[in-house]
Design a protein that fits this description.
This protein is mainly β and 272 residues long. The protein has a domain at 80-124 and 147-179 and 204-268: Beta Barrel (Porin), CATH 2.40.160. It is 9% helix and 53% strand. The protein has helices at residues 13-30, 87-92; strands at 72-73, 76-86, 100-110, 113-131, 135-155, 165-187, 191-217, 220-235, 255-268. 22% of the residues are buried.
């Protein structure tokens, strides 16, 4: 079995603290001001006892309202469509030894339900060198992937003026990726040995989600999604020990926790 020994390059404890503080700031700034939908004005009731014999109740013509037809699902009527991008994934591309991640989110708001699909791609490259008194080992690691996630969320906030959302839900995730390892070992006694290994892998897992979206200006939203990832199963060369599963994390762990920060633009379909 081939074992790849590399130093971890995921976010350190300081970065997680920064993310945690960002969540607290977001909670303080979102200023949820839920308001009930205003009730319709009650119709005036005219008592018969107050009417004179010759008095008559004025008749009013009621014009039928035009009903706008639209897509209606079993979960509710389509109200908004949002398109967003994962800012944290793009930001990591400028950090040393971090993967490039491009992830696009599309969401359809159906009443209290939010239908979601995420599509993304990632590229990760890492060089590791180890030197002892007699040997020198150089390893080049490359990982390229395409992934998607599909599922739904439920909004727990009532309709409010600022149109904020607080949600929880689930995702089914799938990724196709290729891992490549190039190693060169120089030994003072045995000379130079090289190997080039490639493994094509298909991975599936489940996610539990929790997060919020804040309407900061007109149709512009910002927010985050906290993801609990578990139930990973993969297919590929079993002799090749996986080092990293894109969009999931370390495959050696039974579960992984991550956070994503997004910016969305909302396309209203029906006014609230």
């Amino acid at each position: 079995m081939i074992i790849l020994k590399l130093k971890p390059t995921f976010l350190n404890n300081i970065s997680y603290k920064i993310a945690f503080l960002s969540i607290l700031i977001l909670f303080l700034c979102q200023n949820i001001n839920a308001q009930n939908i205003p009730k319709k004005e009650e119709k005036a009731v005219i008592l018969k006892d107050t009417l004179k014999k010759n008095d008559t109740i004025p008749s009013t013509k009621i014009s039928p309202k035009k009903i706008k037809k639209g897509f209606k699902s079993p979960f509710g009527k389509l109200e908004n469509v949002r398109l967003g991008v994962n800012l944290l994934g793009l930001g990591l591309a400028f950090a040393p030894k971090q993967p490039f991640l491009l992830e696009i989110n599309a969401e359809a708001e159906l009443g209290k339900w939010l239908a979601n699909i995420d599509i993304g791609t990632s590229t990760k490259r890492q060089i590791y060198q180890e030197t002892t008194s007699n040997t020198q080992l150089s390893t080049n690691y490359n990982n390229q992937a395409f992934f998607f996630k599909i599922g739904g969320d439920y909004n727990v906030i009532k309709k409010n003026v600022k149109k904020h959302l607080l949600f929880f839900g689930f995702r089914y995730a799938h990724a196709n990726f290729t891992e490549n390892i190039q190693q060169e070992k120089s030994d003072t006694l045995f000379g130079i040995a090289k190997q080039d290994l490639t493994n094509k892998v298909s991975a599936n897992w489940l996610e539990g989600t929790f997060g919020m979206k804040v309407n900061i200006w007109k149709n512009l939203y910002v927010g985050y999604t906290l993801r609990y990832k578990t139930a990973l199963w993969t297919s590929g060369n079993k002799e090749f020990l996986l080092y990293d599963v894109p969009a999931f994390g370390k495959p050696s762990k039974n579960a992984n926790l991550s956070i994503s920060y997004y910016v969305w633009y909302c396309f209203p379909v029906k006014k609230r």
